[in-house]
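Here is a protein:
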Amino acid sequence: MKFYVGGVSALEKLFLYFKSNGLNIYGPKKDRNSIIYGELNDFSQLCLSPEGISSKTPQSIKNIVHPSSQLFLKTKSDYSSYAVYDNESGDKVLFGIRPCDLNSLYILDKMLSEDPYYSHRRETIKGIVVQECTIPGKYCFCSKVGTGPNTESGFDISYAFIGEYLVVFKSGSKLGESVLSKLFLREANEEEVKLYNEKIKNAKDTIEKNFPLDVKDIEGALEKSINDAELWKEISKDCIGCSNCNMVCPTCTCTEFIDDIRMNGNAERKRIWVGCLSPVYGQIAGMHFRKEQYMRYRHFVLHKFLFSKKEIGTKICVGCGRCIAFCPLRLDLRKTLNSVVSIYGKK
């Protein structure tokens, strides 16, 4: 893989190249004192911090391809109906997304492969530009689950800051190679490649220091812990069922349907996100199949690391740390996994 070097101005040229080719650009953008995921109309809106930003924004790519509220069916008074593919149109480029969110996109592809509404939005993405993280965020543990802080595949172009104004670029596809050739970048020298590798290694070392658990032990330990109700009650005692973790997680996809019936006989059906940590989740006519909070928290954790592996062949936690950052009581998934592995990891 070739490395190229340029300044922030080269990054802006890359942005303008896609813009001039009629593509809408979406990614992490500065919005007052916070960061949101949305359309970038100007390069100055792009969040360029070399630090992992997932713990600073409750949003992710999920907000773009699988929105929190989506109208998808309208019915008239004569009972005729038609599907609504919302107002999302135009080809787009994801720009400046982080490696953990890149991985979440491919997880969403697997989980929602048969969803035509997801597919409609997904097909509009024509390019992916990733910003690698040279400084992990406070709650990041991407390297432990193999999703960062750098990336090797699944993107068109990636870039990383190795100095305040010095940027290393990599191409990950023929499209990426073609676009980078138009920026007239120079090939990185040996010292610059070395500096890049050192920064990525330092980021991984920081994550390892904050979360030294060997993830190879997680799946087996979780499997053995399923019936240990007392352990899960203790682990989840601070969980209040607010579902914040579900809402901010880039791979939680559960929705429920809402019908809005009008007095004139017309009706609309939409779907909204719903979280498995919510006390009403699992409540059906005549019973509640996860009526205690520890059951819901246990399911959330097991689904991320165990059940999903059996369903789609991969774990669906990308180590972004959003569930930790936006938990009002700071219930820490890393501590949960440590607790389970400390008891069941060696049995």
The two ends are 42 Å apart (CA to CA).
